[in-house]
Amino acid sequence: xxxxxxxxxxxxxxxxxxxxxxxSVIEAGTIAPVPRAPAHVIGITALRSxxxxxxxxxxxxxxxxxxxxxxxxxAIVEVEGHSYALRFDQIDDIGNAQSDLAPVPxxxxxxxxxxxxxxxxxxxxxxxxxxxxxxxxxTQENLEVAA
Length: 147
Known about the structure:
16% helix; 147 residues; 5-stranded mixed β-sheet
């Protein structure tokens, strides 16, 4: 049986999240900025009266967000008991894994290697399987901005 994946685009690349890691995909509502937050933290939003941190995954991998327009959807995930809303260029739909996880041929660069488990073939083509916890952590540069 193939693994279900939430397919997305991030900084122009096809990516996937394990469907079990995603609680839901929602339309972005009001996002309130958080003073002195790391650069990859857009702000906070609420879903059914629960506050959650909104992460711009483009910034979390060290990319300039204005280079990659995004749609209005957010993927809701939970890491270590905290809820987060992840913003991508686009959140597509559910897909199916067609292969086992493999290293990225030729590598994908330090930023991508840090936030991905590797490459997986899907019914939509090859995709980087993203590590949700590493996206939330951001880059060292993101954290230094807040200091």
